[in-house]
Design goal:
Blueprint: E1 2-6, E2 9-15, H1 25-35, E3 44-47, H2 53-56, E4 61-65, H3 69-77, E5 81-83
Parallel strand pairs: 3-4, 4-5
Antiparallel strand pairs: 1-2
């Protein structure tokens, strides 16, 4: 399970498990943090849609990647970092 790689580069696809959507990501992130002793206030949460904002809000460092209207406005109102990647 986990991220798929193509020639040593993460592909953005998953293999072996289904990735939850919207609020469904929250319990997965919380459980992973508990099981691996991660302090979410020290973690980075990257997202590119407003649906990702639920889990991004759990992280001490939320980063909106190439956000369109709704996520951009949400990120700005929460003073999250916004990055534009090719």
């Amino acid at each position: 399970c986990g991220p798929s790689e193509r020639t040593g580069i993460l592909s953005g696809s998953e293999r072996g498990w289904s990735v939850p959507r919207r609020k469904g990501k929250v319990p997965v992130v919380e459980q992973d943090a508990r099981e691996n002793n991660h302090d979410l206030s020290q973690c980075y949460g990257y997202g590119n849609t407003l649906a990702d904002s639920w889990f991004m809000a759990l992280c001490g460092h939320a980063i909106a990647v190439n956000p369109e209207g709704p996520l951009r406005k949400h990120a700005q109102s929460h003073q999250w970092e916004i990055v534009e990647w090719p």
